[in-house]
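batch job 7 of whatever, protein = GPAT/DHAPAT C-terminal domain-containing protein
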Amino acid sequence: SSGDVNYTSRALDREQYQIVHLGHCIVDSQQKHAVLTCFNMLALVLSNHMAASDNPLLLSKAAKDVAWLSSVLSVLGAYVKEGNTIESVKETIQVHKSLVKLSGDTIQLVSVHSPHYKIDPNRIKGHQLEDTTMGVAVPLLMLQLYVNPCMHYIVSPAIITVIMQHLGDTGHITRGELFQRYQFLRSLLAHEFVLYKEWEVKEFEDALLKLELVNIIESSTEEQLTLGNHRKLQLMMCNLLYPFLSGYLSLGQFLLQMKPEPVSEKTLLQAGQA
């Protein structure tokens, strides 16, 4: 009614800041106290395997990687449900049989896209993708739902790992320069993940400590950092951010080609899909 008071519009800057801060604290607490299951680990392993290899994922290898990844995420601060054995992997595959399946000794994604389902082309912002593309994309997107809870513990360490992987010939970087690059990528990925700018220094320092624990980075001097020798985890960190960064790169390259011409959202989306 006309007599209602809009308290939000009248809130002081301090109150608005506190509301935003409280919201991030709630989300952060929820993410930190979520328990990661065997299928979260398997989804992460399978997603990484598909990004890194064309070979099928063997059950035995998946079980070993699930156990390894469980210990890594525990170091990174996650609560991981115990019992990530080969039997646990078999059981979780059975529970999630609508998404993954065992074919002999290999783990495969189940095709969940029906070619008989017709999409109104007028509702599509970009290209109408072929059924073969949708057959791969839809299961991967559904798998990502189970990867996402793990990303809370991985995003900051992964950003630093990506930067360290692209140091060039020197192979060294100061903490100050690393933080500047971290700030840039973090601001970019803030559109993809819940990242609170007020905590960027704390989360940067925390990520550095954890990366040292898992041998991804080493201190060559008091101020200089270099890559450690945990190659397997380095590659996984990079693979997990690759879809996001490659998307930004593709669109950025397209915009550079088109400048200074204005581009519609539909054209931009089609270029990103091409």
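notes: The longest strand covers residues 100-103.
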